[in-house]
Amino acid sequence: EDEIIAGCQGAIALLGTGNPPVTRSVMEALPDLKYIQRFGIGVNSIDLEAASQLGKLVLNLPGFCIQVLADLATAMIMGLIRNVGYYDRTIRAGGWPKGEYLLPGNVREMTLGLYGFGGAARCLYDIFHKGFGTKIITCDPYVPQEQRAQYEAQFVDFEELLQRSDILSIHAPLTEETYHIFNRDTFRKMKNNAMIINTARGPLIDQDALAWALENGEIRYAGLDTVEQEPISPDSPLLKLDNVLLTPHSGFYGERSKRTQIQMVCELVPHAVSAGELPRRHVANQAVLSQDLGLKLI
Length: 298
Hints:
By secondary structure, this protein is of the alpha/beta class. 34% of the residues lie in helices and 14% in strands. It is built from 11 helices and 12 strands. The strands form 3 sheets. Strands 6-5-4-7-8-9-10 form a 7-stranded parallel sheet, sandwiched between helices. A 3-stranded parallel sheet has the order 1-2-3. Strands 11-12 form a two-stranded parallel ribbon. Helix 4 (66-81) crosses helix 6. The longest helix has 21 residues, at 255-275. It starts with a helix and ends with a strand.
C-alpha cells in the first residue's frame, strides 16, 4: 500500500497488472485518482465499496481470456484422467510405468459439473458436451431462465452438483459467499473418484481440506491454476501428490488473450479521458454509476 501511494501521487489512473492491494486508505491518499484499471477479470484485491463511495471507477476486462481458461481446464482434466503428469515424472526419474497407476475413466461417460456458468464455463461446456458428448450439470443461480434454455445443461443446486459430478470445475468469483465453499464437508459429499479443477480464485478451496481429501480418498484428483497463497508454499502436501496438477496462475496466458488484454487496456482509460465515453460492462463497481461522473456510458 505504501509503495502504491508513494508511486502514484498525482495520477488519475492506476493500472494493476497483478493483484495490488487498492484499499480505502490507498484511494483516500490519492485524491486525483479516478480510474483503477485491472489487467484481468478478478477485482477481489480492490475495495469496491470504498471506490464507489469515493467516486473511483474500477475497470476490469470481462471475457478477455475465457477461451484459454477453458483450454487450460481441458488440459488439466484430460491430463489427470490419462495420468500424464505421473507418467512424465516417473519416466524422467528412470521408470517406465506402462499400464500402471490410476485406471483412466472415459470422459464420454462422465458428468462434468460447472460451479458457475459464465464465459469460461460455457466454453468448457462447448468443448466437453459438443466435443466428447459429456453430460453437463451446473450450479449458478444468477443465470437468467432465457439463457438456460440455450444450453443442454441441467441446472442443479450446490448439493446435487457435489453428489453427481465426476469432474467439478470452478468458474465463480471470490466473494464472502464463495470463500472456502469447497471444504472438508463438501469434499465428503463428492464421489471418491471425483476430480476438482480450479482456474478461478484459490481461496474458493480450503487448501488444507483439499490435501486432506486427496490423502484420505475423499476425492481422487485436483488440477489447480490458483491456490490460496501464491506462490504455493514449498511445504504444501499438494506438491508430493501424483494425482495433482499445478500451474502458476497462468490460465489467462495465451497469444490471442494477451493481444486482447493489451488492446482493451490501451483503449479503455484513454478513450474515457479523451472522448468521455466508457463501456458499462467494464465497470466492476456498478454502484458508482449512480453518481455524476461526467461520462457517457455505452
